[in-house]
Amino acid sequence: MDNRNCIASPSSQMSGYFNSKEIRTFADLFCGIGGFHYAADSLGLECVFSCDIDRDARKQYKHNFGFEPDGDITLIEVDRVPDHEILFAGFPCQPFSIIGKREGFADERGTLIFEIARFLHAKRPQAFVLENVRQIATNRNGKTMNAILETLSDAGYDCDFKLLNALDYGLPQKRERMIIVGMRNGLGQFIWPPKSKERISLSEILETSPDPRHFASEYIRKNRREKHSAKERPAIWHENKSGSVSSHSFSCALRAGASYNYLLVDGERRLTPREQLRLQGFPDKFEIIGNDSQIRKQAGNAVPVPLARAVIKEVLIAVEKSGIQCQKFKRTIPRPHA
Predict the structure, then answer these.
(1) pTM flag (> 0.70)
(2) Which residues are catalytic?
């Protein structure tokens, strides 16, 4: 195991701490293992509530943040959730993903946007940031996105959305995510974050002595070599659904439900759990519990930390510039980590 002290952790490279006077607390819905949490924490915000239906993700979250998220959002009574100034939600992407059936609202997971709206109606945070796959914008010829925006508008928010790529925010991973930003008092001061001028290299992400269990079989390696010859090392070899193989100095998007061998380092081995987390911007201080399969799923479902941080920072700046005084909330239950 490589024991470098966060040298390759993209989130350790993030700078520009922002001490918001108006937004200080957040709720973390569909929190997974805490991508939004890490991003918001680095900006001085405090988590007062989190939830996720996945038991293993909740265990991982508790191990690293000190408190266990609530479970199924549909069973949560909003009146017992603490008030908060900003809400984050990486709501389930499977109904819209390219590797799924893309059934949208026909899949019950696609209707969970209405649970987010339930929180927004009840708690009235100043702003929110939502994350999903790029296909959400084209699902049902745009009707799904229109329905989502209408639902968020009915909750009292002005919204904007944009496709952002983790490659543009310091990570060596091509991961395009649709980001939706909403604010209660207009978006006049909000701007989308500029692209980063620097990127962590793939060589900084990769471990130097990976466990042998991560190497693909000789049959798979031979098959890859017969299909492709890389021009550079290190590289991530990617095999798509049609069997075509390509390689790049960055990784294609991590996916929770894809084949174990669709991404191979130099056509030879799978990414280790630590490498997967690094590709999503999680610092090396993030402690791993659970097996490889669980981490693969959790990392594949996570929001890229530097991308999330860049957006959140611009939201905080916009709120500060607006000069709007946020309501001073009185918590209804103790903070989860109290």
Answers:
(1) yes
(2) 93
